[in-house]
Amino acid sequence: MSLLKRLFGKSEPPKQRIRVCIECGMPLAEHKDWCSILRAQIEMKRTTPAPSAQTS
Ligand SMILES: [Zn+2]
């Protein structure tokens, strides 16, 4: 009956720290439709001709 085993023994997969949008509170991959940050991103993609020279 070790406490450590209790804490670590549970078979919960180590959760990756997911970056969450500060606007809509969703993971960055799942913005809400109304999220202004998502809209800004969409705008960026639209307005950017996106040459392959762009590195990110
Ligand atoms: Zn968002």
Features:
single chain, 2 helices, binds zinc ion
What would you say this structure looks like, in words?
There is one protein chain. The protein has about 55 residues and is an all-alpha fold. It has a domain at about 15-45. The chain is built from two helices and no strands. It has helices spanning about 5-10, 35-45. The radius of gyration is 19 Å and the shape is elongated. The model has no long low-confidence stretch (mean pLDDT about 80). The structure holds zinc ion. Zinc ion binds next to helix 2.
Could you provide a short overview of the structure?
The chain has 56 residues and is mainly alpha-helical. It has helices at residues 3-9, 36-47. It starts with a helix and ends in a 9-residue tail after the last helix.
Task: Let me know the average pLDDT.
Answer: 82
Proportion of helical residues: 25-40%
Strand content: under 5%
Structural class computed from helices and strand pairing: mainly alpha
Distance between the termini: 49 Å
Q: Count of DSSP E strands?
A: 0
User: Any low-confidence stretches, pLDDT <50, length ≥5?
Assistant: none
The main pleated sheet reads as: none
List the ions, cofactors and other small molecules found in this model.
Answer: zinc ion
Describe the secondary-structure layout.
Elements: H1 3-9, H2 36-47
